[in-house]
Amino acid sequence: MNFTLSETQEMLRESARDFLAEKCPKSYVRQMETDENGYSPALWKEMAELGWLGLALPELYGGFGMEFIDLAVLLEEMGRVCLPGPFFASVVLGAMTILADGNEKQKAAYLPVIASGKTIVTMALYDSDGACDASSLAATAFAEKNDFIINGAKLFVPDAHAADYIILAARTSDEKDEQQGITVYIVPAKDSGVQCTVLKTISGAKLYEVIFDNVRVPRDNVLGSPGKGWPIMEKAMERAAAAVCCDTVGVLQKVQEMTLNYAKERKQFERPIGAFQVIQQYMADMVTDADGARFTAYQAAWKISEGLPATKETAIAKVWSAESYERTITKAHQIFGAIGTTMDHDLHFYTTRGKAAQLSYGDADFWRELVAKAMGL
Amino acid sequence: MDFEFTAEQEDFRQEVRDFLEDEIKKGTFRPMCDGWIQGFSWDFTKKVAGKGWLGITWPKQYGGLGRSHIDRLILTEEMLRYGAPSACHWFAERQIGRAIYVYGTEDQKQEILPKILKGEACIGLGMSEPEAGSDLAALKTNAVEDGADYIINGQKMWTSCARYMTHIYLVARTDPTAPKQKGISEFIINAKLPGITTRPTIDTTGSEAWGEVFFDNVRVNKKYLIGEKNRGFYQILNQLDYERSGIERLMGNYPLFEAIIKFSKETKRNGKPICEDPLIRNRLAQLQVEFEVGRMLIYRVVQVMERGKAPNVEAAIAKPFCTTFEQHLANIATDILGPFGQLWKESKYAPLMGMAAYSFLASKGYSLQAGTNEILKGIVATRGLGLPSTS
Questions:
Q1: For residue B159, which of B115, B214, B81 has the smallest C-alpha distance?
Q2: B39 — phi, psi (to 5°)?
Q3: Which of A208, A314, B88, B117 is deepest in the core (most CB within 10 A)?
Q4: φ/ψ (deg, to 5) at A337
């Protein structure tokens, strides 16, 4: 039992913090909101050179040989600066899923090019109704000779436009059990049958509607076993949820620091507003919420890292993350006063980033249900 | 980072569980809410002492086992899980032993520490007074030097264990002319000294939760002053960090938590277990989330202690969170039981041995004792975050 970072993780954190402070000021975040791709290829290249894109991949596949828990440290730092771009999509959704469930050939084909930044892979977890469960899965695929033909629509696919491949699940047979008869594919995103429409999000995150119209992929592009793909999606969802909690830890921590500084500097009634007990209690609540979010997120990431069952821990983390975000950001806005509600102020980057995370990869109700299941209810 | 217990720690947990299950089978105790503060059983306390489990974190030179704070956490976590009657030894073991081996004289160590370790000392805390609650330094009970003794006059209240205590850990004013925080000293005294009388305080659950303790010209030998004269307040602050560091703030009502979950699985309404009702399900799951977060906050406290630091801000973060969880638990449990949630354990139809009604009432005090939530959040804000003091 030890909640502190290792020396290596501390080093990673420090170097990430320095790098991102320089490369990802709020002017960059602002600029990327209106950029078509939502990221700078030059920065992407630098992140690849730092080894970040392959941080948690084995050296065998061009990775850095670290673990998911180390990736958590990096994700927290990215949340702290609201880093835009396809890192989460390509690394957490793409690379980690292929690493977990790909065959040797697929791992050798995709992972080194993800690590080097040449290839971007994303994943479609939501169906058109905005749900991520097997009963909502509407896309279909059927076999034709050595190929599969995929049809369907997916929503909220991150960075689909920038991606070279999209991982998605489609129903290949109708079974009594909704979780059966599902197959996962790696689909070339530039296929003429793939049509991406960007959605305009409050955080500037590039989320897409992706329509697959008779997209033909060879059998080699099946991830895992045909018909048995649902557990792949569940695990991917779990990793994504744990990872997005780590991003939110960064958001909460930064919001706490910004708000604290303001409470010390801003004077009203001839004293810093932080001398008022109400503000102090808000700040103490923010610390408690953020600490809870940190420990639960890292616990989930650690369980995943160790290959241990992590559903309950991820569920706890995601529920707490979602709720502590809402409480914290509301208090932060209250302390900052009216200036915090303007576009000129940095707080809104965190308001929207945290909100996007809260709604992504299962909201609090979705994960609370999994807590209930884990309790045997 | 590491979110697991070691194999040795898991073995120890199992050993504690085996012991407790065995004692339940033998009829030594029945699991109860608040067993750590309301369950007095010298028989049980002596058995725990016999296992060597009192003072396990104390240094070996003082008769402890020098084991880690994580081991103690495991021990206390299981005691609370099983609602064991641990009140005779809890305070002494948790904070007074340490106060004595850190600040006390050699004589005091020789006299008091073995009694705590053997489960023979039940130590009441003589801190709060009618005019000194959160503002402890405003206390008026005074100790005046008289030859080899101090003469003590005054009144304490909210003293747990007042009926059972063998000793009183007393805080009294020794310099009435000094600024209020600088004229206070600590004593460890025999609770049966002439001039000490007690009067029970009955809480809203009908339990004798505390006592008032009156001191009428009580003569105490100077050798029972702990540490430095007039430095008592600073010693107390350190002791209070330990007072609020434990998992009892989260798990005091664990038997109710388990019982309401079981009840929700086994009780049917409209032909279905009530835990399948989405509203009940959601609230129980939310409780579990809060419980797990509270557990992490306390595990962090213990790690701070393990690094040899006083768990000041960390305990001040954990305690209000955990007592708030206990209030949520009591509220949700009574809600799930509906009108039955108001029944005392003696009543016809009382569900879950009346634990829900008890806990609902008792839990209003949890966020007051050992530092109110407001005082503790103030500590987080000022000492933790460096915000200006409001006074």
A1: B214
A2: -100, 100
A3: A314
A4: 70, -160
**Most B CBs within 10 Å: which of A8, A288, A298, A327, as the mutation test of the B interface?**
A288
Strand partners, B22: none
The mean-pLDDT minimum among B192-206, B238-252, B339-353 falls in: B238-252
Among all residues of chain B, which has the CA nearest to that of A7? B1
As a whole number of angstroms, the distance between CA A248 and CA A297 comes to 9
Nearest CA in chain B to A365: B282
Whether B296 has its CB under 8 Å from any CB of chain A: the answer is yes
Looking at domain A123-228, what is its CATH homologous superfamily? Answer: Butyryl-CoA Dehydrogenase, subunit A, domain 2 (2.40.110.10)
Averaged pLDDT, B216-241: 93
Residues A105-124 have a mean pLDDT of 98
- Flag if A281 and B281 touch (Cβ within 8 Å): no
The nearest CA of chain A is from the CA of B371 a distance in Å of: 14
**What's the mean pLDDT in B281-306?**
97
CB contacts, 8 Å: B264 with chain A? 377
Give the pLDDT mean for A64-92.
98
**φ, ψ for residue A139, nearest 5 deg:** -65, 150
Task: For residue A350, give every residue at least 6 positions away whose Cβ sits within 8 Å of its Cβ, in sequence order, or none.
Answer: A82, A251, A254, A255, A258, A329, A332
Q: What is the pLDDT of residues B303-331, one digit of tens each?
A: 999 999 999 999 999 999 999 999 999 99
The answer to whether A224 touches A172, Cβ cutoff 8 Å, is: no
The average pLDDT across A221-241 equals: 97
Give contacts of B 261-280 with A, CB under 8 A.
261, 264-265, 275-276
Judge whether residue B302 has pLDDT over 80. Answer: yes
Percent of chain B with pLDDT over 70: 100
Are B321 and A376 inside 8 Å of each other by CB?
no
Pairing of strands A222-223, A267-268: unpaired
Mean pLDDT value of segment A164-193: 97
Enumerate the residues of chain A whose CB falls inside 8 A of the CB of residue B1.
Answer: 2-6, 9, 69, 298, 302
Check CB contact of B362 with chain A, cutoff 8 Å. Answer: no
Domains and CATH numbers, chain B: 7-121 (1.10.540.10), 124-230 (2.40.110.10), 244-384 (1.20.140.10)
The pLDDT value given to residue B389? 87
Find the closest chain A residue to B290 by CA distance.
Answer: A320
**Which residue in the set B4, B70, B374 is minimally distant from A281, CB to CB?**
B374
Q: Alpha-carbon distance B153 to B144, whole Å?
A: 9
CATH 1.20.140.10 segments of chain A: 231-374
Handedness of CA B108, B109, B111, B112 (dihedral sign): positive
Position B238 scores a pLDDT of: 86
Cα B89 off chain centre by: 10
* Superfamily, domain A7-119: Acyl-CoA dehydrogenase/oxidase, N-terminal domain (1.10.540.10)
- The pLDDT tens digits for A34-52 are 998 899 999 999 999 999 9
In chain B, the residue whose alpha carbon lies closest to the alpha carbon of A322 is: B289
CB A150 within 8 A of CB A141: yes
CA–CA dist B137, B173 (Å, integer): 9
Residue range B230-270, pLDDT digits in tens: 999 998 988 888 889 899 999 999 999 999 999 999 999 99
pTM for the full model?
0.96
